[in-house]
Structure to design on (194 residues):
């Protein structure tokens, strides 16, 4: 035996570790390579609510702290600190884009999204919009890249507003932002206008 005490990761230990780093802005998680310590009972639901051991996390500051150390590797999500890495569950996307502002027109239009945790991102070539369609119902799920490789599900009201800004471009119906066109649906698949 090495004499070291085995520590089981918990929400409290993660919060303490990240607070000890005392960084301004987002922590440099891309520079950290801690050992995998297992999964913890934490989940981000489709509506953006964070749960720990089956209970919603009611402290917004704590949720923002956890979100600041969230990473995605392929289709798995982890919380990382300089000393530990734990797996969590994410039902859809870790963020929800709850609003956006449009400025400019046509190809010069900029769509600035705000997430449920206060992150702000401008859709463009480095932070693209993505529209995934359900293979059975055809219903779209719209996303925007928020940071690193973490996306935000665009909420329904914001998606409807996006559609109102939509235009046709090269056989697609979609929106412009940051000089990039993002296709929502092929123009031929839209119902005829009445």
């Amino acid at each position: 035996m090495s004499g070291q005490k085995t520590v089981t990761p918990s929400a409290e230990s993660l919060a303490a570790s990240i607070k000890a780093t005392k960084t301004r802005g987002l922590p440099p998680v891309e520079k950290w390579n801690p050992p995998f310590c297992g999964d913890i009972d934490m989940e981000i639901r489709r509506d953006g609510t964070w749960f720990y051991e089956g209970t919603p996390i009611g402290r917004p500051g704590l949720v923002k702290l956890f979100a600041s150390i969230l990473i995605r590797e392929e289709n798995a999500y982890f919380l990382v600190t300089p000393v530990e890495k734990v797996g969590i569950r994410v039902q859809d996307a870790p963020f929800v884009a709850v609003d956006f502002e449009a400025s400019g027109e046509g190809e010069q239009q900029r769509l600035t999204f705000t997430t449920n945790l206060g992150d702000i991102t401008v859709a463009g070539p480095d932070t693209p919009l993505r529209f995934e369609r359900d293979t059975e119902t055809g219903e779209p799920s719209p996303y925007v890249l928020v940071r690193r490789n973490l996306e935000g599900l665009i909420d329904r009201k914001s998606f409807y507003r996006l559609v109102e800004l939509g235009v046709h471009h090269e056989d697609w119906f979609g929106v412009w932002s940051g000089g990039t066109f993002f296709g929502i649906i092929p123009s031929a698949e839209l119902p005829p206008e009445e």
In short: The chain has a mean pLDDT of 89. The helical segments are 11-21, 60-68, 156-164.
